[in-house]
Design brief:
366 residues, 18 helices
Length: 366
């Protein structure tokens, strides 16, 4: 096909004295055009069969792979898929850019079928308790990385492709990312809940949960990018869970087990948590700021200082209803009366604070 379009009837060939071709008499242009159309259709059919066979083989190999402890195993799925769908369009580029776009669209159609099958298989595994229990964190990270790489590749190579097709592929990949991340965070949440519950009820002098948290993630340099994404979300989740367990605990128990100055202990735990998160994901967002502010708030001795700390907390992190409810619970846990809580919030330059406070007083404790 390349020869017909680029060499046959080219200026060089027509000018060749040995051929002496008269294009008007010796060449049936309609026949050439008809042949070209048929050749293109056959080429697209062959590409479709070849890509489908290749992707099916890739999926079969993935289903038999039990470990991904090496960079090759971790990145292999995404690399193989991208190479499979890219090779044919690159070859077609040698014939024409328009043909290359058509070939790439056929490859994307097969990719859509592949990601749907891949998503179905992953969803099945996540719903099977026995299989889910066998998955290590690195398997979740691999799925997230694969989805991200494929999504970015499709969006980058979307030029000349039917927009709805691209959107369908991206939607499946985004959904798979969300489900995978949600499942992994649920596992982290369950483990954190169990450890924090024991921590706040025990007489432990150290925040030993940190050690369990570190072993949850693999120590692999090749997955640090996607691990940072998970650690960031887990970090936010853990700080919220810590505060929830704090306000559910009895102050007298914590003062007896920890120290009369609970705020100092909370600050120490916050620093330990941030150090652990930074070890797992260097440069991670400083989500422990919330707990440091809680530490400072617990050390406040007068209403004016409380108001200043509350104002700072409202600006920095208590921007959602759940966060604000936690803050309100914390103020009550500190022993502030409803009147003092209301005063602390009413003095803040935040229009919604009074509304939230009113809801709290309506539904809160008497």
């Amino acid at each position: 096909m390349k020869w017909v379009l680029h060499d046959y009837l080219s200026q060089d060939m027509l000018a060749d004295p040995d051929l002496a071709v008269d294009i008007a008499k010796d060449v049936d242009l309609l026949l050439v055009i008809e042949w070209t159309v048929k050749a293109k259709d056959n080429l697209l059919k062959n590409v479709q069969k070849e890509v489908r066979r290749c992707l099916e083989k890739i999926l079969e190999m993935e289903q038999t792979q039990s470990s991904c402890d090496s960079e090759e195993a971790f990145m292999g799925l995404a690399v193989d898929i991208i190479q499979c769908i890219d090779a044919n369009s690159k070859n077609a580029q040698q014939i024409s850019a328009k043909l290359s776009d058509r070939v790439r669209e056929v490859c994307f159609q097969e990719l859509r079928l592949f990601v749907e099958s891949y998503h179905t298989e992953q969803a099945r595994i996540l719903k099977e308790p026995a299989e889910l229990a066998q998955l290590q964190t690195i398997h979740f990270l691999k799925t997230l990385k694969t989805c991200t790489e494929l999504r970015q590749h499709v969006q980058t190579r979307a030029g000349g492709i039917n927009a709805p097709l691209v959107q369908e592929i991206v939607a499946v990949l985004v959904n798979m990312e969300n489900v995978t991340l949600k499942t992994l965070l649920k596992r982290i949440s369950d483990s954190t809940e169990k450890n924090l519950k024991a921590y706040f009820k025990s007489n432990d002098k150290r925040f030993v949960f940190i050690n369990a948290l570190k072993t949850f993630f693999p120590e692999k340099c090749f997955c640090l990018e996607v691990q940072k994404r998970v650690v960031t979300e887990a970090y936010k989740l853990i700080t919220q869970l810590y505060l929830k367990h704090l306000v559910k605990s009895k102050r007298r128990h914590l003062q007896a087990c920890w120290s009369p100055r609970i705020g100092i202990r909370v600050g120490e735990d916050a620093e330990l948590l941030h150090q652990a998160m930074s070890d797992l994901a260097p440069g991670v967002e400083e989500c422990h700021i919330m707990l440091l502010q809680v530490s400072e708030l617990l050390e406040c001795k007068n209403p004016e200082t409380v108001e200043l700390e509350v104002a700072f907390m409202l600006q920095r992190w208590a921007t959602k209803r759940e966060d604000l409810e936690l803050l309100l619970s914390l103020l009550r846990w500190m022993g502030l009366s409803k009147r003092h809580v209301k005063e602390a919030l009413d003095h803040q330059p935040r229009p919604s604070s009074a509304t939230w406070c009113s809801c709290f007083f309506t539904t809160g404790e008497g």
